[in-house]
Amino acid sequence: QLVESGGGSVEEGGSLKLSCAASGWTVSEYVMGWFRQAPGKEREGVASIGADNSTLVADSVKGRFSISKDFAKNILYLQMDNLKPEDTAQYYCAAARGSLGGVENYHDDGLYDYWGQGTQVTVS
């Protein structure tokens, strides 16, 4: 089970930190990713991290968003800074078994096995 939290409404330039609490497995053993979907748009990968701590961050958020894992708490985080209106979306946490064939595949949402319910981020 994956449960996201930390979404909300912020002004442009603000920050939010999303959390994804995992139960039933340990975040260190899976590829974990953050995806988002805006109204009328396809779901897209935002940031993902592998069991070996390799990461893939979308160009649209590079330098503003960072992904991390807390092994002790078994939580995945997404720190979002300098938020822009175009970051407005429903954000989802996901987990995948295996290596997905390499970091270049980390944003292929079809390869993920487990999904959270999502948390809304609105930037105005």
In quaternary terms, these chains amount to: single chain
Structural class determined from secondary elements: mainly beta
**Separation of the first and last Cα atoms:** 31 Å
Number of helices in the DSSP assignment: 0
Q: Largest sheet at a glance?
A: 7 strands, mixed
Cα Rg: 13 Å
User: In sequence order, what are the helices and strands, one letter per element?
Assistant: EEEEEEEEEEE
Task: Tell me the overall shape.
Answer: globular
Got a strand count? 11
Describe, in short, the structure shown:
By secondary structure, the chain is mainly β. It is built from no helices and eleven strands. The N and C termini lie far apart (31 Å).
Please, could you describe this protein's structure?
The chain is mostly beta strands. 0% of the residues lie in helices and 46% in strands. The protein is built from no helices and 11 strands. The protein has strands at 2-5, 8-10, 16-22, 31-37, 44-49, 55-57, 65-70, 75-80, 89-96, 114-115, 119-123. Strands 2, 4, 5, 6, 9, 10 and 11 form a 7-stranded mixed beta sheet that branches. Strands 1-3-8-7 form a 4-stranded antiparallel beta sheet, with no helix packed on it.
Task: Write the topology of this structure.
Blueprint: E1 2-5, E2 8-10, E3 16-22, E4 31-37, E5 44-49, E6 55-57, E7 65-70, E8 75-80, E9 89-96, E10 114-115, E11 119-123
